[in-house]
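Lab channel / #folding
Pinned by the channel admin:
"Please post every new chain as: sequence first, then the structure tokens as a reply. Keep commentary short and put observations after the output so the thread stays searchable."

First post following the new format, from NK:
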Amino acid sequence: MSQLVESDCSQERVAFIFNPVSGTQDPVARRTRLEQLAQEVGLSCELGETDLKEGSRPLAQKAVSDGMDRIIVSGGDGSIAEAAEVIAGTDIVLGVVPGGTGNLLALNLGLPTDPATAIRVAASGSPRAIDVGRANGRVFLIVAGIGADAQMVQDADRDLKRRWGALAYFIAAWRNLGRPLGRYRITIDGKTFYRRAQTILVGNMGRITGGVELIPGTDPADGMFDVAVIRARHFRDVVTVGLRAILGRHQSDNLTETFRGRRIVIETNRPQPYEVDGNDLGETRRLEITLQPKALKLACPESTAPSFPNPAALIAEVQARPYWMPLLVGVGTGAFLAAWAHRDRRNGTEPGIATRHPVAIGALTAVALSVAVAVSGRTGGVTEDTTQSEDERN
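Reply from TO:
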């Protein structure tokens, strides 16, 4: 367990929890670096290492019993949520030094990911109160999911993440394409309806890897959950939903629906996998989610507004480099078709015409995009922002 720490900026009692198996970096080098940085900001302690089975929860419980005022956690989103489960509803401040694969909490809240800056903020940042969710009793800060999302978390195990980093989630998503839709009975604040869905996400925060807003309009301090019912089953559906998220053009239709509420109950006729903040929690037929408004005090920098690039501006920037966009998309198309052909052969089916010729299709895609970009350049390309502001959408 971490020892008593005193910061030079205050006389708070601080505990430092370290998850050595999170992320992809060498744990020894990472721990040495964190100890050095901690000393530089006036903290002096041995980092308490998490248990592989119990996670950061026992260390956080010890810190509470020892009367600590602040707990710093260096690990992934799951480790942070485990500590938050212990201190939610108390006056203890949680400091975050991102050390996981996705680091979605930092991404959504604009927390620094550079270790040196992150430790300074974690040790002395002002507390910001955020909402806390509980899914079947387990705390989450970002999102709880049931269905394909949770199956993807199960498949993106520690070995896969260590080997591929954030790409592990995309590999796991690929493996789950074509997964049958589940039947769900959904109750939001007492109102019940039925849906068939690939996955259901209950978000306190809505951005995923790359800053893409998968669940629109989330605010971790508004006292409400945002619920996304997603039916994207096939590759083309996933691409459609992904492009909408990237461009900020969300809509409710046969692929996605969004709702808001404080108490969510999701029931299904057969057990489905579920997860919270990237932690695999097994399977359930009933997922009950409740909200504790502003129950967690999180150490934040003075400005916590995350800055994300405007999608239209990104498109214009890519179009300004016409040789790269067609090449990258063409290579990506060819790689996808080759993988699809491999999947077909593995399943004992004959690949289609397109998947039998991935190189040719990829090359044709690159040529077609080159022509399109050239034509767009002659007509002025992207000259105005066609995306809607949050106020306009509301």
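NK: Confidence is low (pLDDT under 50) at residues 1-11, 373-394.
TO: also worth noting, The chain has three domains: 5-124, 139-292, 311-386.
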